[in-house]
């Protein structure tokens, strides 16, 4: 209802809200507060988004640094198999299976689709109709390949079942230049490498085009096989019923194998490594701040472009620092809030947790595996005590079964049913000393202690040598070759420690009434020109230490270098059964 005042103006019954100055000011203030709060929430959201973005970038950068440890490309099953040299009756042949095992270096499939085959390994592929295969060698030799049919193979022992993909390459033939043309001739697996190298060099000289064109191209159609090497070629009928196998024998150098169309690829990701990367970044950021975390990750990321191996090996140190810093921050926060009497125990707990982290990240004290007789328990008769690395236990063989220790136990009169071994992979002389000295007295008592090794000690005595070998084993031929020189120099710098380990090992053997025989192994790469100066110098010091203490020292390369061929090795360091047989025979003749 409207009323009229004395002046004749209209007026509402109640005051208007919009005309009330006090209420209008309050409304404006609330609106400003809401706008300010909204902006603050927006800023906080942006701040959190930026932090998350930086954390994700740090995780991605750290994952890039460790790319060789968690990500790899592998050929899908059925395209590639591994070969093992064995004796079948009176001839040396090639057995195959689908199990690639943990060998370093191992087969490496590059992002461009090229399969790198490391020295000593044998890669076997079934020739598929219409598919082109190209094989090259890194050295100035023609590729060493075998062509043959797939046939059945017997298990290594009657109590073992055949593994996936186990078979045998039968009717093996290799390339030769006969008269004025390329030919496939019967393969002799007993030839020394020096003879094979001369043959491959002559083949290269006859077929290469102006020093190039060493790539070997092989193609199988429905009814014929085509082979081309440089300017040389051959075509021959192909039996329709046979599965034709192409075996690439890397020998002392790296080889490559390319397939067109390309290999069917599987991407392998080791997720626990990425989980550790994420945990490290979060812990580092919470303890040291986001800026420090980003700076560390960026520095390692840039370094990995220039020195990828060193950057990869540095990353565990940042993990250790991040975890310890997080533990320290927890302790500081807890110390402020805890009563005075609880502060010292909190500090002690933080130090204990840091020590546990250090123990988890730093390699622990070497453990000693059990003493294992090759063919069951021989009771107390262990007069032939074998100490060594993975080769002494049969690693590198098909089924990882048999080999040096088994052959001594089976065929050597002095060791028959009296042999046992204490072996471990990736170890060095200090482990051999500690392992034998901690053994029961029955192990080798009044008999012989036989040490098989030395090649590991050529490379694994540096502070980070073992880790570096693992990293470069996933990066290809060039990093591997550079690392061999670096690791050998680092090991030579610690030759005095190696000699001390030999002396300690021999003292324990002699106190047990045992003779000592040091069998120094060699690598497939040594077949070309022997050991390099660093490794030769280390061998000379080891020999002098053994002989000065009354032991016997045998350089296996010195004895077998002229005889050993491509069929003596199943990978870079592990002998095939062919090599194990000759090694066991030599050992038996050298036992006193």
What secondary-structure arrangement, pairings included, does this model have?
Elements: E1 3-4, E2 10-11, H1 21-65, H2 67-70, E3 71-75, E4 81-88, E5 91-97, E6 108-109, E7 114-117, E8 122-126, E9 132-137, E10 145-151, E11 167-178, E12 181-186, H3 193-207, E13 216-220, E14 224-229, E15 232-237, E16 244-249, E17 255-260, E18 265-269, H4 271-288, H5 290-306, H6 308-337, H7 340-361, E19 382-388, H8 404-411, E20 419-423, H9 429-437, E21 443-453, H10 465-472, H11 477-492, H12 495-511, E22 515-520, H13 526-529, H14 533-548, E23 552-555, H15 556-560, H16 577-590
Parallel strand pairs: 19-20, 19-21, 21-22, 22-23
Antiparallel strand pairs: 1-2, 3-18, 4-5, 4-8, 5-11, 6-7, 7-17, 8-16, 9-13, 9-17, 10-11, 10-16, 11-12, 13-14, 14-15
Helix pairs in contact: 1-4, 1-5, 4-5, 4-6, 5-6, 6-7, 6-10, 8-16, 9-12, 10-11, 11-14, 12-14
Main features:
3 domains; 6-stranded antiparallel barrel; Jelly Rolls; Rossmann fold; disordered N terminus; single chain; 7-stranded antiparallel sheet; 592 residues
């Amino acid at each position: 209802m409207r009323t009229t005042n004395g002046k004749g103006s209209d007026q509402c019954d109640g005051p208007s809200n919009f005309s009330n100055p006090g209420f209008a000011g309050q409304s404006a203030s609330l609106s400003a507060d809401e706008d300010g709060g909204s902006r603050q929430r927006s800023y906080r959201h942006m701040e959190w988004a930026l932090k998350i973005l930086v954390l994700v970038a740090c995780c991605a950068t750290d994952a890039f640094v460790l790319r060789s440890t968690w990500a790899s490309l592998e050929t899908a099953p059925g395209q590639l198999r591994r070969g093992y040299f064995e004796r079948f009756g009176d001839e040396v042949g090639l057995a195959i299976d689908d199990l690639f095992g943990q060998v370093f270096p191992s087969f490496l499939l590059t992002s461009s689709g090229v399969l790198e085959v490391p020295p000593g390994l044998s890669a076997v592929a079934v020739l598929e109709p219409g598919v082109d295969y190209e094989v090259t060698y890194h050295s100035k030799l023609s590729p060493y390949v075998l062509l043959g049919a797939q046939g059945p193979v017997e298990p290594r022992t009657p109590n073992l079942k055949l593994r996936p993909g186990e078979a045998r390459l039968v009717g093996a033939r290799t390339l030769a230049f006969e008269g004025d043309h390329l030919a496939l001739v019967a393969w002799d697996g007993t030839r020394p490498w020096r003879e094979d190298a001369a043959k491959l060099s002559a083949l290269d000289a006859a077929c290469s085009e102006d020093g190039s064109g060493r790539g070997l191209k092989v193609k199988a159609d429905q009814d014929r096989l085509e082979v081309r090497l440089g300017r040389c070629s051959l075509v021959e009928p192909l039996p329709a019923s046979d599965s034709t196998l192409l075996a690439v024998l890397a020998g002392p150098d790296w080889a490559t194998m390319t397939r067109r169309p390309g290999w069917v690829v599987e991407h392998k990701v080791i997720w626990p490594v990425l989980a550790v990367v994420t945990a490290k970044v979060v812990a580092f950021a919470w303890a040291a701040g986001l800026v420090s975390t980003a700076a560390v990750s960026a520095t390692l990321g840039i370094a990995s472009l220039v020195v990828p191996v060193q950057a990869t090996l540095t990353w565990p140190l940042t993990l250790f620092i991040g975890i310890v810093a997080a533990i320290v921050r927890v302790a500081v926060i807890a110390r402020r809030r805890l009563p005075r009497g609880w502060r010292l125990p909190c500090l002690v707990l933080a130090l204990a947790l840091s020590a546990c982290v250090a123990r988890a990240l730093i390699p622990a004290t070497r453990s000693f595996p059990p003493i294992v007789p090759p063919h069951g328990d021989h009771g107390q008769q262990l007069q032939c005590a074998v100490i060594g690395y993975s080769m002494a236990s049969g690693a590198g063989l098909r089924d990882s079964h048999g080999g040096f220790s088994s052959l001594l136990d089976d065929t050597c009169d002095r060791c028959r049913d009296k042999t046992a071994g204490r072996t471990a992979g990736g170890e060095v002389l200090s482990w051999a000393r500690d392992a034998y000295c901690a053994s029961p007295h029955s192990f080798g008592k009044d008999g012989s202690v036989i040490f098989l090794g030395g090649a590991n000690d050529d490379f694994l005595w540096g502070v980070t040598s073992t880790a570096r070998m693992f990293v470069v084993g996933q990066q290809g031929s060039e990093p591997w070759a550079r690392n061999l020189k670096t690791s050998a120099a680092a090991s030579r710098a610690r030759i005095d420690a190696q000699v001390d380990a030999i002396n300690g090992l021999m003292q324990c053997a002699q106190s047990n009434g045992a003779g000592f025989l040091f069998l120094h192994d060699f690598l497939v790469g040594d077949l070309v020109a022997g050991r390099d100066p660093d490794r030769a110098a280390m061998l000379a010091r080891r020999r002098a230490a053994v002989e000065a203490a009354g032991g016997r020292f045998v350089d296996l390369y010195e004895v077998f270098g002229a005889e050993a061929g491509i069929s003596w090795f199943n990978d870079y360091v592990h002998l095939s059964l062919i090599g194990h047989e000759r090694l066991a025979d030599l050992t038996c003749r050298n036992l006193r």
